[in-house]
Amino acid sequence: MKLAYRTVDVFTDTRFCGNPLAVVLGADGLSDEAMQRIAREFNYSETSFVLSPACPDHTARVRIFTPALEVPFAGHPNIGTAHVLAAMPDYADADELVFEEKAGLVRIGVDRDVDGTVLRTELTAPEPLTTPAIWSVDEIAACLGLDPADVATTVHPPMVASVGLPFVVAELASRAALARAKPVLDAITRSLPRDGADSIYVYTRDCGAADGGADVSARMFAPFDGLPEDPATGSATGAISALLASRAGIIDGEWRATFAQGVDMGRPCRIEARVALRAGRPDTVRIGGRSVDVMEGTIRI
User: Fold this and answer.
1) In the 3-class helix/strand/coil scheme, how is the chain assigned residue by residue?
2) Which residues form the active site (predicted)?
């Protein structure tokens, strides 16, 4: 059995930057075990598998695997998979793709150049914001090797947040603290998993020159998923965007921000977020960015 695959670097327009993704096409005949083995072979933060949709009105069924496990939803696999499919003849005129995923339907908008070339793709989060649990400052600081004074709580305390995939999220007081953060496995093992989250996403609004003019700079650690650090995490960006937008004092309108991630690991990414608010609550959360093609080939099963 042979399957075609593509790789793309996501949330960048520069090859060998961004977050790499493998997209395996025509994966209907693969078992769960085979998908996991292939994801482990690529050893990217995620690998997506494109299958026939259950509903013919949808574009595809998409399954997403880290090197260690399957996840119900993730950001950069959706952005990158949409980039790959939107360039194929069957979808060359599509301005929206619809993916069936374990978290629900994921809609992806496609922006094109005048000649039809895919410029960027933008997903709509499949679930509303939920914040099931609050963490202590001391606990999050211990998990990241930081001092409790490095954790900012003016806008929100450390907490679990999700728009389809839960993360522990926390704001740090400075860019220097973000650069110092590192996963402390003993502390993380004592604290996670909890409330569906097994990963920690930290960010600061104290951005530096290396962040390329972004509003927010972030890092994400997921040691249980085989990811010491992820270059770009769209699902976590969606969750924190919804959380920040909900506390921005906007009643009816749109909140926007750009996020830098991967800078501290040499894979700079730029993620664009926008949140529509109705009656002061996040109504629609969208995460988008560019992708660039890198490799293509055949997998032998």
Assistant:
1) CEEEEEEEEECCCCCCCCEEEEEECCHHHCCHHHHHHHHHHHCCCCEEEEECCCCCCCCEEEEEECCCCEECCCHHHHHHHHHHHHCCHHHCCCCEEEEEECCEEEEEEEEECCCCCEEEEEEECCCCCEEEEECCHHHHHHHHCCCHHHEECCCCCCEEEECCCCEEEEEECCHHHHHHCCCCHHHHHHHCCECCECCEEEEECCCCHHHCCCCEEEEEEEHHHCEEEECCCHHHHHHHHHHHHHCCCCCCEEEEEEEEECHHHCCCEEEEEEEEEECCEEEEEEEEECEEEEEEEEEEC
2) 46
